[in-house]
Structure formats: structure tokens, C-alpha cells
From TrEMBL:
Record domain 6-phosphogluconate dehydrogenase NADP-binding: where: 2-90
GO BP, one annotated term: organic acid catabolic process
GO MF annotations in UniProt: magnesium ion binding; NADP binding; oxidoreductase activity
InterPro entries: 3-OH-isobutyrate_DH-rel_CS, 6PGDH_NADP-bd, NAD(P)-bd_dom_sf, THDP-binding
One family name in Pfam for this protein: NAD_binding_2
Name of the protein in its database record: 6-phosphogluconate dehydrogenase NADP-binding domain-containing protein
Amino acid sequence: MTIGFVGLGIMGTPMAANLLKAGHAVTGFDLGGERIEHLLARGGTGARSVAEAVADADLVIIMLPDSPQVEEVVPEILEHARPGLLYLDMDYAVDLHYGEGGIDHVKAMEAFGCPARRVELPGDLRDALAWASAESERERLPVLVEVMVEREANAAMGSSLDAIREFEPLPELVAVDWSD
């Protein structure tokens, strides 16, 4: 798989390195040139722009600090993406909700004329992915399926992880048959 990676910081660099170790072709972009050098040293390809990083990608991973940075690069990704592109926003913002001021990826895609759908129940995922494949082929555009488990998730970051004293119980998982 060919992967475009945007954001090669503290979290993005090791993620991209692991993808290279797994045998994927990774083209990365970052504002910091030394971070691209780290990717090159591990066998990846450096890009001079977001457009160059995503042009030939089957999958684009964004690892940026917060929603404003993500919102800045999404238009360029959509403009240069191939039909059928898979897109993962892995931002590590603490505010991970949609609506009421958070980023709504479905509305963002629709604003660019691209089909999008949000899935909130595990049992709906298979149909949504089938819809996305058919829609991408029919429309010849990038298609988004956003999977939301919770509307809001406040997550501790960095050294604050050590201060967590309260844990939520794990939800009961629903068995899903992914075979065809």
C-alpha cells in the first residue's frame, strides 16, 4: 500500500517508521525538514508539499496537533487525492468532539462536494464501507466514512497520563462477522 503521511513530529515519525517496517511505501510531508530526513533515513520518500505527499497515495494519514492544522491541510488533500483514497485523521487534540465547535469531518467533506457518512454503531460499519466503495467508484471522488464511538472524548496527554486515577469500564463489545 502507498501511504501519504502528513505530520512527522513526535508521534508521526515513529508511526511512519513502523509502516515502512511493515513493507508499505510511505511519502511524508512535514514543515520541519529534519523530520523528513528521519523518514528518508528509514527508507521513506520526502515530499515538498501536502499535494506531493498524497498524489499517489492509497491511504493518507494526518498526524497533526489539533483541528486548526487539520482544517488547513484537508482542502489540499481533497484537491489532490485519487478516487477511492482512504483518509485517517490521527490528530491528538484533547477536544475530539463534533458539533458545537469541534471539527465535523462529514460536513467538511460535503462542503468540498465529496460524499461522506458517519457511523455510530459497529453493526452499521460494513454497510457504510460497501456504500463508500460504490460511491467512490460512481462519483470518482474521495469518500469519507467517519466512525464515532463517543461524541466527545477528553483524553490525557503526555506526562498527565501518570495522573489518571479514574477509569471508565470497557463497553460490552458486539461480535461482528467481517467475512464475506
